Hints:
The structure holds 2 protein chains of 2 kinds.
Chain A (H helix, E strand, L loop, with lengths): L1 H20 L6 H17 L10 E4 L7 H17 L6 E4 L6 H12 L4 E4 L5 H10 L4 E5 L4 H4 L4 E6 L1 H21 L9 E6 L4 H17 L4 E6 L6 H13 L4 E5 L4 H9 L3 E4 L11 E7 L2 H13 L6 E4 L6 E3 L11 H14 L17 H7 L10 E2 L2 E2 L17 E4 L2
Parallel strand pairs in A: 1-2, 1-3, 3-4, 4-5, 5-11, 6-7, 6-8, 7-15, 8-9, 9-10
Antiparallel strand pairs in A: 10-12, 13-14
Helix pairs in contact in A: 3-11, 4-5, 7-8, 7-12, 9-10
Chain B lengths: L1 H9 L3 E5 L5 H27 L3 H13 L2 H26 L7 H19 L5 H30 L3 H23 L29 H20 L1 H11 L1 H6 L4 H28 L10 H11 L4 H24 L5 H22 E5 L1 H6 L1
Antiparallel strand pairs in B: 1-2
Helix pairs in contact in B: 2-3, 2-14, 3-4, 3-13, 4-8, 4-9, 4-11, 4-12, 4-13, 5-6, 5-7, 5-11, 5-12, 6-7, 6-11, 8-9, 8-11, 9-11, 12-13, 13-14
Amino acid sequence: xxxxATLLMxxxxxxxxxxxxxxxxxxxxxxxxxxxxVATQAETEAETxxxxxxxxxxxxxxxxxGYTAAHMAGIAEMKxxxxxxxDQVIEKTHIGEDEACYDAAVDLADQGCTIIFAxxxxxxxxxxxxxxxxxxxxxxxxxxxxxAMSGLANMHNYFTAVYESRYVSGVVAGMKLNEMIADGxxxxxxxxxxxxxxxxxxxxxxxxTSFYLGAKSVCPSVTMEVxxxxxxxxxxxxxxxxxxxxxxxxxxxxxxxxxxGAPTACEQAGVPVVGYNVDMISVAPxxxxxxxxxxxxxxYTYAVQxxxxxxxxxxxxxxxxxxxxxxxxxxxENVVAEGTVDKVAxxxxxxxxxxxxxxxxxxxxxxxxSIEDLIANNADFAKYADYVSDGYxxxxxxxxxxxFDLRIDGITELTN
Amino acid sequence: MLKQNExxxxxxxxRVIKRSNISMPKAxxxxxxxxxxxxxxxxxxxxxxxxxxxxxxYLGIVDxxxxxxxRIWVTVRETLVLLxxxxxxxxxxxxxxxxxxAEGQVLMGGAAAAAIMIYFGQSLPNGILLIIIFTxxxxxxxxxxLLPAVFxxxxxxxxxxxxxxxxxxxxxxxxxxIVFWEKPAGSNTVGIxxxxxxxxxxxxxxxxxxxxxxxxxxxxxxxxxxYMRYTKHGYEIAVVGESQNTAKYVGINVKKVIIxxxxxxxxxxxxxxxxxxxxxxxxxxxxxGGGRGFTAIIVAWMAKFNPFAMILVSGxxxxxxxxxxxxxxxxxxxxxxxxIITGIIxxxxxxxxFFITYKVELNRNRKEAH
Lengths: 416, 370
């Protein structure tokens, strides 16, 4: 006993001495008080010098998960573009969609952040709670929908027109289906795609519909089945759902979930696949076509620049191809159909120019009727009146978050 | 001669002897030494990753846990939750009933609280609402504790598996409820319940946001101390835990004790669920328990079922967790870094119990043989 105790004592002493040698400490607390005053100025005065702006970011995951990795890349782009130093950006990872988000948000505000971002849908309520408490700090929440109705001037929503890039990735998928029909692998009637979705609400519905419409624009006979995993990131479930869809006769798979589960399953089954967020070619070299991606950099740069300039940040921000906020990952030349590159360039140019509208109401029907007829004649659809005009559904224009949750003809949702 | 020498050489260098008894100060010295040692190891680990000196890393931990008024309160709030679950688990483990279902019992309590808040939050005055919430949560947790106890008492089922499986049942029930409660539909998030009128939220007490949390948890802690130490029930629990045959011999109704104790254990865990939902998060999800039902088992065991020691242990664990979150953010580390640190600390703290129960001696015979 005595020997053990002596040994412990000696080790403690040694470590204590080591620790005592270097004495530099962090300045986190000192910055907190100083920056609170800065925050007050941001609202009232014209400018905040770039050197005093402080950015807080709350992530649902970390760099190992595609969705958060895309946000992190966006923050890094903003940091480089505006020349911010490391200690001007505080990032918190793995923040759950509960009081942990509120704790993180107010803690960032206490540390002197002048603008705070959060990237997961379920963070919104907690961001609003924090925004009400810190009126001088700007709070921006991705994928949310409540900023405009919250009545808080410092609460903002942002999203990207990812439906545009999904549409383009759908075109890539449709071209592939055409190739398969042409070389006799499948008949036109067998052109059925499978979609691995996360949750059955507008963000996912809008995504798969735009993907489907993209495919349909080049392959008119295409149909699609959607099945949900009820999780944003569940590798095993995504892989299993992809396998079920393939067993069900789907000849091409796409996904709106965050892992590489579906592409992995597709690679094994030899079925072409369109990914999301990250380039899937490394996971599925012989089956990945491309991925619909989001580039968050333009928004982060815009929002932080606004704080520096003292100009107001849009309550709802949503941009697409026109601002390079969305795109598709490099086409996998071994897998994509011939002529895809030219077709993609053509569609992208049309989207940028605003000539092509993804949710063109002449391209889809709901229960056999056009959406205009339904709005006019069916009270259940009257709520879409604000969104539909000039022959297309104005997705993400009224609020930044996706609103298109119509289940259109040609797509079947499978429920377990 | 040669043969004898060979035998002695094969004897191990150390030998382990069970201690007959150990004085309190000595035991605590070993524990504190282990805690210090774990901090040193953590420092080296973090230092090798970040390249910063250990002192500033520890200052980061202290800063994260108690660096501002708000951080102190978060640490206190989290400690209270961990503490009350551990308090709930203590009688069950004292009885050697392996209740690893606290996570599920907490979830059921939380789900009951959320249900009442959602369905009656707009219509009932807050005082009555809170009483209903807490009653419902206690009942929900109690049922989740009662089920495995009845099966254990009458059919001698394996309570470890039973309570573990009930965790998953509870999670599925919550997943199912979220289908009805989520907003907007399909998003799988419930959001803050009754954000506008704060219906069913625990109000602040004496101007302290978590005042009621403190009062409730400390009352349960003191109550449990008295119950376990000074009541007949507490004595019965201890006897059943030591030996069921002895308990039967002295005329204790073992079945009754098992069922009664698990009802209490489950009820307190259910109450913990209400404290989380009504007193802190104001939402419900499958991660409302957050693994604390399992961490609390460690707290209860390390504190040797002494409710007051549990305050220290849970406080220490939460302090380190909160601190680790801060250094993870400060040094751009992944959140897993905090798990590593907590893991190292637990390794030392649990490991040191070995040195309290046993002593390790150099093998003297070996020396003599040479």
